[in-house]
Design goal:
This protein is of the alpha/beta class and 405 residues long. Helix content is 33%, strand content 25%. The chain has two domains: 3-179, Acetylglutamate kinase-like (Carbamate kinase, 3-Layer(aba) Sandwich), CATH 3.40.1160.10; 264-401, VC0802-like, CATH 3.30.2130. The mean pLDDT is 94. Bound molecules: aspartic acid (ASP) and magnesium ion (MG).
Length: 405
């Protein structure tokens, strides 16, 4: 069997016309000889009757505190409705289907309601249905615990379902259908000449996805990568090939350009930089330990961490600033904050060992009078913290300087 997993996001399923286009993508794959597993998100966005956010609001309107176990039970319904509606459409067009919810599809998770992790996939029932020549439709974003509780996989988790099924079924491809035609070199709302990439590596897309590119859930990429199952990011509404995500260019008959040093630029706004003077009463080392433990206990995630003997500098999300500052001040620390910053990520799997990437970034930003407030780097990404007012300009100049258009 040549198995393909095809996932459709909520915005690809929000109207009867769009649902027909989605279904036609599956029928086309079936005609090519694939056994098809279809993963669907809840239909539409906030305000649409069965969208995830609408279901959450349904409870919030009654009372702001929501029990997560019952919330997950409700959220499971959004994707189930979508799956059954799509199934009906396939049936109308003469294709046999079976809808298997998360539990029936064998998706076993831990018991962290609303953020569950998949522990295991038992794909036997899916395989049996594929052998019976049925299109298998699985509501995304849901699973079941070993004790039978219904869970969800965190926002955007339908991608994770698709990836986990793709790995368990050793699919030839995992297709992520969405309303854009692939991964771009930059956010097209900022950079008009941003280009769709033909192929990117798992690492590159993980970096892009963690750093603001919203096309795919990074966890889905991490799962697909474990078994080298190629992912394709494709448009539901166009005939374009989309972006292939893989490590094995040759096996998929594409060339991953090895002269491409920079692949894409992303941005994350609404970040605050915190500076803490460590020369206070205690010695810096002990204080450091306490600072980061205290923030972790308060569930505040920190980023861009630089520690010096006299000073610790790091960032938090703007929404966490007040809480973080209070915690630190209660420890007797002096905190300097710079809110409204943005993180620019310059991503490229081939930048390691290439001299001059940082120099080019610094030159390009300095020439435009953009202050670099902090930097960090790994072998595939360089991050720069700038002021939010400079964010769009920074993305534009870097995109141009690295000739990504
Ligand atoms: N419906 C869920 C959400 O809105 C899962 C998904 O769409 O991937 O987060
Ligand atoms: Mg999504």
């Amino acid at each position: 069997m040549r198995i393909i997993v095809q996932k459709f996001g909520g915005s690809s399923l929000s109207s009867p016309e769009k649902r027909l286009q989605a279904v036609n993508k599956v029928i086309a794959a079936k005609k090519e000889g694939y056994s098809c597993v279809v993963v669907v998100s809840a239909m539409g966005r906030k305000g649409d009757p069965y969208a995830t956010d609408t279901l959450i609001d349904l409870l919030k309107e009654i009372h702001p505190e929501i029990k997560v176990r019952e919330l997950d039970m409700l959220l499971n319904c959004g994707e189930i409705i979508s799956a059954v509606v799509i199934s009906q459409l396939f049936n109308k067009l003469g294709h046999e289907t079976i809808v298997l919810n998360g539990a029936q599809a064998g998706i076993i998770t831990d018991n962290v309601f609303t953020e569950a992790r998949i522990l295991q996939v038992k794909p036997e029932r899916i395989i049996k249905s594929l052998e019976e020549n049925k299109i298998v439709i699985v509501p995304g974003f849901q699973g079941i615990t070993e004790t039978g509780e219904l869970t969800t996989l965190g926002r955007g988790g339908s991608d994770t379902t698709a990836a986990a099924l793709g790995v368990a079924l050793e699919a030839e491809y995992i297709d992520i259908f969405t309303d854009v035609d692939g991964i771009k070199t930059a956010d097209p709302r900022i950079v008009e000449e941003a280009k769709t990439l033909d192929v990117v590596t798992y690492t590159e897309i993980c970096n892009l996805a963690h750093q603001g590119a919203k096309v795919i859930h990074p966890r889905a990429v991490e799962i697909a990568m474990q078994k080298n199952i190629p992912l394709r990011i494709r448009s539901t509404f166009e005939e374009t090939p989309g972006t292939l995500v893989t490590n094995l260019g040759h096996a998929n008959k594409v060339e991953i350009p090895n002269d491409r040093i920079i692949t894409g630029i992303t941005q994350v706004p609404n970040i605050t930089q915190l500076k803490i003077n460590l020369n206070a009463k205690e010695n810096g080392k002990k204080l450091n330990l306490k600072i980061f433990r205290a923030l972790a206990l308060a569930n505040i995630s920190v980023d861009f961490i630089n520690i010096y003997p006299e000073e610790a500098i790091f960032t938090v999300k703007d929404e966490d600033t007040e809480k973080a500052v209070k915690i630190l001040q209660n420890m007797g620390l002096e905190v300097f904050t710079t809110p409204d910053c943005a993180k620019i990520s310059v991503v490229g799997a081939n930048m390691a060992g290439v001299p001059g990437v940082m120099a080019t970034i610094v030159e390009a930003l300095t020439e435009e009078n953009i202050e670099i407030m902090q930097t960090a780097d790994s072998h595939t990404t360089i991050w720069c913290l700038v002021r939010k007012n400079d964010m769009e300009k920074a993305v534009k100049v870097l995109h141009k300087r690295f000739k990504l258009g």
